[in-house]
Amino acid sequence: MDHEPMHQAPPKRKRKRMPPSREVALMVTCLADLMRPSVGFASLRLLQRAGCAVVVPEQQTCCGQPAYNSGDLEATVPVAKAVIAAFEPYDYVVVPSGSCAGMLCRHYPSLLEGEWRERALALAAKTWELTRFLTEVAPLPRSSKRPPLSRTVTYHDGCAGLRELGIREQPRKLLADHCGVTVSELSQSEVCCGFGGTFCAKMPDISGKMVDDKLDHAIATGADMLVGGDLGCLLNIAGRATRRDLTLEVRHIAELLVGETTGPGIGEPQQ
Fold first, then answer.
1. Which of 133, 190, 223, 271 is least surrounded by CB atoms within 10 angstroms?
2. What is the SS3 assignment for 25?
């Protein structure tokens, strides 16, 4: 994949249906593993529905974003090398997170040098964010048995997925085709929610104002559910909604697409 400047979305890849024999490695991500395992299981089931032979490498680790975003490149390099080594044997790498996928696709090649940079470029070329993969490589088959979701849904575009990977229409198409949902669009939808990894801890006042604005825009749409593709953003938004005592269910798009809408939303107490 070409690596254009960060402020430009990459060109659309030509749609090419994946041969059935190809192995897809699922990168679960740290936040899904620790905070919302249902996102990982939902992603696995979606990939299987799309006809993929899915592998979940046991040796996978964090992609290195916390250290990288804090400027600790020395600590990031061995993490990046470990991720490359874990995932390079597979034909595709799919990630249910725009920020983690962006780390592999955009930042690893600029972080590493020599042979490791070449290996990073090779990994970037076969790494896909989940919703883009399910629309452009292995289209998710429609189910005639599934009734439309009777909820009003708004969608949060995570910064990394939107700006680094050009992800915007793909999740909306999936929601329309597989959930019968037309998204009630947020005002200022391209503005950050205030999470930004370590940013929310380093700049809590600014971050708090940003997530409050995002929630105000969400409530103004009349939606009772906010959906997104990056769990970090969703945890931030759900946490603030809980503190404000707002009635707004927050879910990862993989959960909606697989039909998991009855259990607690993100940030809600387990039943």
1. 271
2. strand
Contact 138, 47 (CB under 8 A): yes
- Secondary structure (DSSP) of 168-229: SHHHHHHHHHHH-----PPTTTTS--S-TTTHHHHSHHHHHHHHHHHHHHHHHTT-SEEEES
Place of tokens 């452009």: 136
φ, ψ dihedrals at 251, nearest 5°:
-145, 155
Q: What distance in Å separates the CA atoms of residue 198 and residue 50, rounded to the nearest whole number?
A: 35
What gap in Å lies between CA 157 and CA 159, rounded to an integer? 6
Greatest CA separation for the chain: 53
Place of tokens 């992609």: 63
- DSSP for 57-126, written as a single string: -TT----SHHHHHTT-HHHHHHHHHHHHHHHTTSSEEEES-HHHHHIIIIIHHHH--HHHHHHHHHHHHT
Nearest partner of 35 among 240, 238, 256, 203, judged by Cα: 238
Give whole-number Cα distances, 56 to 23, 38, 79, 254, in Å: 10, 14, 18, 17
Q: Are 57 and 125 in contact (CB under 8 A)?
A: no
Rg from Cα positions in the chain: 18
pLDDT by 10-residue block (mean), the chain, 271 residues: 41 52 91 96 97 96 94 97 97 97 97 98 98 96 82 95 96 96 94 83 86 96 97 95 95 95 88 63
